[in-house]
From TrEMBL:
This is ADP-ribose pyrophosphatase YjhB (NUDIX family). It holds the Pfam family NUDIX. InterPro entries: NUDIX_hydrolase-like_dom_sf, NUDIX_hydrolase_CS, NUDIX_hydrolase_dom. Residues 29-160 form the Nudix hydrolase domain. Gene3D superfamilies: Nucleoside Triphosphate Pyrophosphohydrolase.
Amino acid sequence: MDDDIRRGDLLAEGEPEQEFHPGIAGRFPRKTAAGGALIRDQAGRILFLEPTYKPTLDIPGGIAEYDESPYEACRREIQEELGLALEIGPLLVVDWVPALGVWSDALAFIFDGGVLDPSTIAQLKIDPVEARAHDFLTLDEARDRLRPSLTRRLTLAQQALTDGTPKYADFGR
């Protein structure tokens, strides 16, 4: 969203709502939000990254920073990870992910990252801090290197591309 539009929208909202019971807002749980992109090549294969910070494949994208929308997080992370300022398309999936280990529960948003032509693929500049490698794979080819929940989420994203209807999921279901 354009910064000027956002500022205008915030001004139109008026003064922030006051708490009836001071301190209550600080006691509410905080959810993490992440935005990722389903980016494909002309053969329909999905762009996967091999992150430097975890053992499984992932799609480009990442966790939203404070006061950043999942869509903007997706755009920023694509620029950082791939060196491309891609046009990010519509929402495909919103998936609630339960708390696991040290990670709080989260909302994972997947947007349509479009189809890259060979000349754009040749321009990919993978950030070595973020990823060791990248590859275009079918979901079946990548399945053994993905968490089951991401496989389910990406299956839903592909369905959303086909039928034009965004999907909501709980842990990929």
